[in-house]
Amino acid sequence: MSAMLQKSMEKSSVFDLSTSSLRDLNAMLQSLPAETNQTSWVVKNPRGAHALAVGITTPVRVNIDGHAGYYAAGMNDGANIIINGNAATGVAENMMSGYVHVKGDASQSAGATAHGGLLVIDGNASARCGISMKGIDIVVKGNVGHMGAFMAQSGSLVVCGDAGDALGDSLYEARIFVKGSVKSLGADCEKKEMTAEDKLILADLLDKSGVDANVEEFTRYGSARKLYHFHVDNAGAY
Amino acid sequence: MNDTPVSHIPQTLPRFSATFDPHTIAEIQRAAATGIYDIRGGGTKRKLPHFDDLLFLGASMSRYPLEGYREKCGTDVVLGTRFAKKPIHLKIPVTIAGMSFGALSGNAKEALGRGATAVGTSTTTGDGGMTPEERGHSQTLVYQYLPSRYGMNLADLRKADAIEVVVGQGAKPGGGGMLLGQKISARVAQMRNLPEGIDQRSACRHPDWTGPDDLEIKILELRELTNWEKPIYVKVGASRPYYDIALAVKAGADVVVLDGMQGGTAATQEVFIEQVGIPILSAIRPAVQALQDMGMHRKVQLIVSGGIRTGADVAKAIALGADAVAIGTAALIALGDNAPEFEGEYKKLGTTAGAYDDWHEGRDPAGITTQDPALAARLDPVKAGRRLANYLSVLALEAQTIARACGKSHLHNLEPEDLVALTLEASAMAQVPLAGTNWIPGKTF
């Protein structure tokens, strides 16, 4: 455990999942009033439980001290949720706003369909990271697996390592930034020129997620917009 | 030797092929000219074994009927009694199926809410999210949880009365969707987080779960997000009903929705609509069998849909073991779809009232399947809602008429023993005897 987390835990309210239930945890976190003074929580013994800290609408800080199962921080709307371990499928799925930080690796569909907020993954993310994302920003400090940002609609996916096959397949207007290599691009995804606006967005995300890297080292990918209107001449692209 | 003068020889009449019939020939010619398949709305148009192939026996020497207009025949249904803290109580067992704002105009969605609410039943959102008008005019609103998750958000999820996880639909089991650019207005685009005017694909697979084991965890999350209050439905297109229903129940569904191939769609390839999936008549008994085998019949409620038109259809579906039905196409017709008053405009679109199915083009003269403000304004949501309420009332009255004749004080007391089949196919599919016999193909000898 980091010294910083240790320090924050000392001031936090502790919820121990070895003695209380998931239902009690979520019910408590979801019912916190906006003016609560219990703004920092530590969840001990998560032991890979599913649906941890979902649907929170109060801007509190929640430290999940261990590995999380599926859909941790699902539909988060304003909370600051840290997972001090790995996260299984669909971490921060459909997040509306707030901040989710995975200290380890994330499994498939991290940040799926999320509308807002920032998801930071210190390790790697598996397949379909950012699938159908609708406005969220995702920063992956390691690599992403295949079909990253599949059907991604808006928001930004930043990959500080390498990307797997079919990056950005069937992409809409989301922005993708990759520092390392890309194994292959998916249908209708292409390399784009990095604009001044892109650089500002990328620099801001790197700064917010504590990544020390130069925006010039990244390549920007986006939609070629050739499949925006169905045309039989494009049938071979699908 | 032929003595008949040439002018008197009978001529062979022009004869159309049963295989290459005029429709088939026209489709080959159209495909050859355009290089693209046909897309349309609605459900299958081919003739299928259906509820018309079943009859009720009615009461006689060994069964006592109930007095029409006097003795009570209940029609209510409670959905979501398995896990949800707040099950839904409907006055009639006919619900409005999921149809999106986007596919339908705002006025059409409002009218569906008004009509359903007037008779005490539910309506359902669709791909594209929940509109305030729809929520406001629907006393009981089911919020669909679809692969695209367009418009999906926590606040609306908590405003819903039930959540329907859509795995598939009868018109296209295994298919996603496509809303063509002409229907992506500024408001539709904003709700879906997409640029205006582009073709919008709806995914065929959910983005964050695959298969029943994942679905079980997804349902847990949805319950945790909503305080375990809301019934969770799982909707599947009819294809392998026994296993699909069993897996939905295993995954934790409160209610399962089974949509036959007659179920409509806003826009799908004709070949998909007509060639994939099975008729609802053939799907109900295997679904009920799965529920019975798991000890879950009437505990996990079964809603069936796809080609429900009359109170007789409602009664037959319930007699075969369903708890309720859902209607989509019939509800749109009640609102005003394919009304004869627009015949002149249907003709201009190359069709005729009763056959119009280009719902994907957004040019609906009745103002229902469109986002064109001028066309949409033609549909008065109050009057259209009243027409829907009238129609829903007729469905309930017709179903009650049949149930009383069978001696049943509640629609749910109807049972397969009240039915016989007119055809071998229907007898085999519905597992009720061929009329006048004790024979069920595959069951009795």
From TrEMBL, chain A:
Gene3D superfamilies: Glutamate synthase, alpha subunit, C-terminal domain. GO terms for molecular function: oxidoreductase activity. InterPro entries: Glu_synth_asu_C_sf, Glu_synth_lsu_3. This is Glutamate synthase. It comes from Acidocella aminolytica 101 = DSM 11237.
Automatic annotation (TrEMBL), chain B:
It comes from the Bacteria. Pfam families: Glu_synthase. GO terms for molecular function: glutamate synthase activity. Residues 82-336, 360-408 form the Glutamate synthase domain. Residues 115-134 are annotated as: Disordered. Keywords: Oxidoreductase. GO terms for biological process: glutamate biosynthetic process. InterPro entries: Aldolase_TIM (IPR013785), GltB (IPR024188), GltB_archl_type (IPR043578), Glu_synthdom (IPR002932). SUPFAM superfamilies: FMN-linked oxidoreductases. Gene3D superfamilies: Aldolase class I (3.20.20.70). The keyword Oxidoreductase applies. Residues 115-125 have a biased composition (Low complexity). The keyword Disulfide bond does not apply. Belongs to the glutamate synthase family. This is Glutamate synthase. It comes from Acidocella aminolytica 101 = DSM 11237.
